[in-house]
Write a structure and sequence with these properties.
The complex is a heterodimer.
Chain A (H helix, E strand, L loop, with lengths): L2 H11 L5 H8 L3 H13 L20 E9 L7 H9 L4 E6 L6 E7 L2 H12 L5 E8 L5 E2 L2 E2 L14
Antiparallel strand pairs in A: 1-3, 1-4, 2-3, 5-6
Chain B lengths: L4 H5 L4 H10 L5 E2 L11 H12 L12 H11 L12 E4 L1 H13 L5 E6 L5 H7 L3 E6 L10 H6 L7 E5 L11 H13 L3 E5 L24 E6 L12 E4 L2 H14 L5 H13 L1 H25 L11 E2 L7 H12 L1 E2 L1 E2 L11 E4 L4 H16 L1
Parallel strand pairs in B: 1-10, 3-4, 3-5, 5-6, 6-7
Antiparallel strand pairs in B: 2-8, 7-8, 9-12, 11-12
The chains are: A alpha+beta, B alpha/beta.
The complex binds pyridoxal-5'-phosphate (PLP).
Chain lengths: 162, 378
């Protein structure tokens, strides 16, 4: 693995790793690490760093839904244009064009089910190209971006062994 | 009850004492663990479950399932080891059983077995239980704990009948290149020794290829190689290993194994079969993570001024702590809640060192290194 790819790998598993610790783990020096990360950022490879949150453990209402979206394209409007319009809503946390029975998979977040369904029916469904929406509310999250949400398995190894 | 002299001759291991000390304390970060912190690859675990669901709960052939022996034969070709699955491979209950059975198969009462040290703690007792006499061969920090021709000569190993090798090494993390092994092979040929080569950490070699002494000229016919699933595949609790050797040697080992063990655990054999079939990526990923941690601990030791050679294998580093390593380890545990095993536990040449296992998550490793630094500077 080249150095940049190795750094990307390390950031994928822990984006909060300091440049010092990244240097210690890769054998690069700190300045090199900082320069390579800057490149990853300016090339748009790394688009941001955000916490993975288990909302069940935050003392406030938070609702997530996955929305399937079907659209009809015409001569003037393509996927790109529809996507551009939808990404602008702050309620939309992710938007992907997918293969299969529907066109877009949209993740929507809000403070209540009412909030989310209102948003879908008032902001998404009326878009002229949208022909159908199916909303799936998230009931339980088990794993998010590679991180398991269950209680952590303890380390049951002997504390000292040969 | 009367205990046998053989048992009386083997003192309790120094590991045990440290285990008890560490268990007395809470909030200990342990760098004293000799097994992976990962779990076995999920596919291997589901293969084991699936075999149970299908009721595959009987004994297997003494030497292990034939399909597993075939997979092992294909697997070890990456180290240029060519062994016939019918005649030259035996599946055992961990490499531990393979070591024990080999001692009993190749050592007669009074035979001398050269054991380079520091090394894994089972070899000396294994020799003694077989009625043999262990001959310690200290290796040296200035050679990065690789075994040399001179080490063998200095210890009088020409009088030995057999030689144990363990590279990549537990506890030092030392590896040996092909050319370093050639020196040892020369000594072995000159003095007609049998070689018992424990290569259980072969897959955990960083920045180079593992070399097996059995691939050197004139060595195959006098060498038995041990390997297993515990380390590379993080399958310690499944208890599965194997030995490779000339037909005559494996047949002799099987003669003991068939009475002592009948066959290695069946469920584990199914897990191992799947591990070899589909878990290469997981092994690579574990190795990648160990390698990062290895570089991390080595740079931390350099920063805090603890001398430490660049260990390139297994998941151990072996820094110098100077003087009385037992005391150092005890005080480190008492004052900073970090457990590490004193080097002298692993025999001659280990004094003044600590075995640091980096089979521990990065967060704990960082904290442990900060504590060691505070201890060293305090
Ligand atoms: C060098 C060495 N050989 C053999 C073993 C035992 O392995 P197994 O689990 O296959 O019995 C260990 C385990 O710590 C080891 O470090």
């Amino acid at each position: 693995m080249d150095a940049k790819r190795e750094l990307l790998d390390l950031l994928l598993s822990n984006a909060r790793e300091s440049a010092t610790d990244l240097a210690r783990q890769t054998g690069l020096d700190e300045a090199e690490v900082e320069a390579l990360i800057e490149e990853l950022e300016s090339d748009g490879v790394v688009r941001g760093y955000k916490a993975v949150v288990d909302w069940d453990r935050v003392d406030e209402e938070h609702v997530q839904a996955e929305v399937e979206l079907n659209v009809e394209l015409d001569r003037e409007t393509g996927y790109e244009e529809i996507a551009r319009r939808i990404t602008k809503f702050p309620q939309v946390s992710s938007l992907r064009l997918v293969s299969g029975n529907y066109d877009f998979a949209v993740d929507v977040e809000g403070k209540s089910m009412h909030d989310v369904s209102n948003f879908v029916s008032e902001q998404i469904a009326p878009i002229p190209e949208v022909t159908q929406t199916v909303t799936h509310f998230v009931m339980e999250t088990y794993k998010e971006r590679g991180i398991e949400f269950g209680d952590r398995d303890g380390d049951d190894r002997l504390s000292v062994s040969p | 009850m009367k205990l046998s002299d053989r048992v009386e001759r083997v003192p309790p291991s120094g590991i045990r004492r440290f285990f008890e000390l560490a268990e007395e304390k809470e909030e200990v970060i342990s760098l004293g663990v000799g097994e992976p912190d990962f779990s076995a690859p999920w596919a291997a675990r589901t293969a084991a479950i699936d075999s149970l669901e299908r009721g595959r709960t009987s004994y297997t052939a003494n030497r292990g399932r034939r399909d597993l022996r075939e997979s092992i034969a294909a697997h070890v070709r990456r180290y240029d080891l060519e062994y016939d699955p019918d005649e030259e491979i035996i599946v055992t209950t961990g490499a531990s059983e393979a070591v024990d059975v080999a001692m009993r198969a190749f050592v007669d009462p009074g035979d001398r077995v050269a054991v380079p040290q520091p090394s894994y703690i089972s070899y000396v007792p294994g020799v003694i239980f077989a009625g043999g006499d262990p001959l310690a061969v200290p290796t040296r920090a200035e050679n990065d704990f690789a075994l040399t021709y001179d080490d063998l000569r200095a210890a009088g190993a020409e009088a030995a009948d057999a030689l144990v090798l363990c590279y990549p090494n537990n506890p030092t993390g030392a590896t040996m290149s092909r050319s370093e092994l050639s020196e040892v092979a020369e000594f072995v040929r000159e003095h007609d020794l049998t070689v018992l080569s424990d290569e259980i950490y072969a897959a955990l070699t960083y920045g180079g290829e593992h070399a097996s002494i059995a691939t050197l000229p004139g060595m195959r016919e006098r060498t038995v190689v041990f390997n297993g699933f515990s380390k590379a595949f993080a399958m310690t609790g499944l208890r599965l290993g194997y030995a490779l050797g000339p037909a005559e040697a494996i047949s002799a080992m099987n003669r003991i194994h068939q009475y002592a063990m009948l066959s290695a655990p069946t469920t584990a054999q199914f897990a191992a079969l799947e591990a070899l079939r589909s878990c290469e990526d997981e092994v690579r990923e574990m190795r990648r993570q160990y390698d990062r941690r290895r570089r991390f601990v080595l740079s931390r030791f350099a920063e805090m001024g603890l001398e430490c050679f660049e260990a390139k294998g297994a998941f151990y580093a072996f820094p110098e702590c100077g003087g009385d390593d037992e005391r150092f380890a005890e005080e480190l545990l008492r004052e900073q809640n970090v457990a590490a095993v004193p080097g002298s536990v692993f025999g001659a040449g280990g004094e003044g060192h600590l075995r640091i296992s980096y089979a521990t998550g990065m967060n704990d490793l960082k904290e442990a290194m900060n504590r060691i630094e505070a201890f060293v500077r305090g």
